[in-house]
Amino acid sequence: MTTPLSMSTAMLVGAAIAAGAVVPFQAAANAALGRAVGHPLWATVVSLIISLIAIAPVLLALRAPAPQLGAATSLPLWAWVGGIAGVIYITAALLLSPRMGTTSFMACVIGGQLLTSLIIDHFGLMGMPTKQVTLYRILGVAMIFIGVLLIQLSSESVIKE
């Protein structure tokens, strides 16, 4: 028998959905930025600089202590891929979303995220706790990929070359 979501779980889910809701705006904004600055990689640089400018006042307001860079140097190599992943995502968003449309791009991104997340969870990769792959989780991801296929099929005739 399943139990309903607790209030704290519902709040976490709501916060995650809200965080995800801003991502299509990021893709569209970065695409416009890429067109304006003349090259996608320069747009990626500008976007990351804006991110730094946006987070600096928050760090100051929270009086966050200085980073412990000494401890960070002992991390495994995979701990440093976050920044690289950000560059790949931002660059892909500004190159692909204008051609595919935001819906198709985001559906594919979500599909890729969920597939990779299943693998990370199942094997406990990158220091994450292990969460076994279950039939329900596989079916959920499969439903997302069916959605990706439906979105892509409905958009296929309008993809700009």
Automatic annotation (TrEMBL):
Residues spanning the membrane: 41-62, 74-96, 102-123, 135-155
Keyword Transmembrane helix: yes
Pfam families, per the entry: DMT_YdcZ
Keywords: Membrane, Transmembrane, Transmembrane helix
InterPro entries hit by this protein: YdcZ
Superkingdom per UniProt: Bacteria
UniProt keyword S-adenosyl-L-methionine present: no
Name assigned to this protein: DMT family transporter
Organism: Pseudomonas boreofloridensis
